[in-house]
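Input (structure):
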């Protein structure tokens, strides 16, 4: 019988399993890791219903890339993303005094009714020096697991409240001066075999979608060790373009298929996003994980059948 089961290894991770297939869809790891990698929770391994892994973990080119995770590459001069920090005119530098964290504080709920699993969490965002800069209320819902169709989905909602007495400025390497490197926010790193994968949007295709706007973006790659392909569809909720301090701040896609597979609906690709003291920035995303290389028409039909 189709269903979702949760197993909580306290202090370490939460694993969600699809019971009909016996596949662990993902582990949500919340134990702290290396300070240089900006400790924060992440999903890895993420699997299709056929059991194929569609995330990478600590790849040798970027050790701080961990599956699917919330990031903040440039936040008021601090790096809550991990690793080296981009400095205009100097490139990427090892500046550990700028690397902060998104610390797990506690869970408000971990539950499954069989068809939907929910992880509700509280986190604190801190710079290297340890002050409380922001509180985050995070909710991850797993739903629409369909073994016959070979797909399942999660919805990720983050509400970040500024606890400083001055604005929080969300930026990216691009806002700091590096062209076409606007990564920040929810970030996915694909497995090594997904290099050179196919990128699709509603009206375009390929890495040229970097920095563009669209309601969704899909990435298809071919597995090592297991025959076949998988497709991940990333979509942002309609209200994302109309929430946040300073009025409308629409998302722009960060996407690469070389030299590695990565997707992020960036919060601050071209311009910084300013969050006033006490204000809350809320963003909601959907990630669909499907077996096979889905075509544009199939993706559009799926999203129409599963509205926000």
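Output (sequence):
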């Amino acid at each position: 019988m189709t269903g979702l089961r949760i197993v909580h290894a306290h202090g370490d991770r939460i694993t969600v399993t699809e019971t009909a297939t016996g596949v662990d869809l993902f582990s949500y790891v919340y134990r702290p890791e290396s300070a240089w990698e900006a400790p924060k929770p992440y999903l890895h391994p993420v699997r299709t219903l056929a059991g194929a892994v569609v995330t990478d973990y600590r790849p040798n080119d970027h050790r701080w890339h961990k599956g699917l995770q919330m990031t903040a590459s440039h936040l008021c001069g601090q790096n809550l993303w991990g690793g080296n920090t981009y400095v205009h005119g100097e490139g990427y530098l090892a500046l550990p005094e700028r690397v902060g964290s998104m610390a797990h504080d506690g869970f408000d709920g971990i539950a499954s009714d069989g068809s939907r699993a929910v992880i509700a969490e509280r986190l604190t965002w801190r710079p290297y020096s340890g002050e409380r800069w922001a509180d985050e209320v995070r909710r991850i819902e797993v739903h629409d697991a369909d073994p016959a169709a070979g797909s399942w989905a999660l919805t990720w909602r983050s509400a970040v409240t500024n606890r400083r007495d001055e604005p929080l400025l969300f930026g990216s390497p691009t806002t700091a001066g590096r062209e076409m490197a606007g990564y920040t926010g929810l970030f996915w790193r694909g497995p090594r075999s997904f290099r050179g994968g196919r990128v699709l949007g509603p009206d375009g295709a390929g890495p040229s979608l970097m920095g563009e706007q669209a309601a969704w973006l899909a990435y298809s790659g071919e597995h090592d060790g297991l025959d076949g392909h998988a497709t991940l569809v990333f979509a942002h909720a309609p209200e994302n373009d109309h929430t946040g301090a300073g009025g409308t701040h629409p998302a722009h896609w960060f996407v690469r298929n070389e030299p590695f597979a990565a997707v992020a609906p960036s919060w601050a690709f071209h311009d910084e996003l300013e969050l006033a003291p006490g204000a809350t920035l809320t963003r909601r995303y959907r990630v669909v994980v499907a077996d096979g290389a889905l075509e544009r028409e199939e993706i559009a039909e799926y999203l129409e059948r599963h509205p926000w």
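Notes: The radius of gyration is 18 Å. The longest strand covers residues 134-146.
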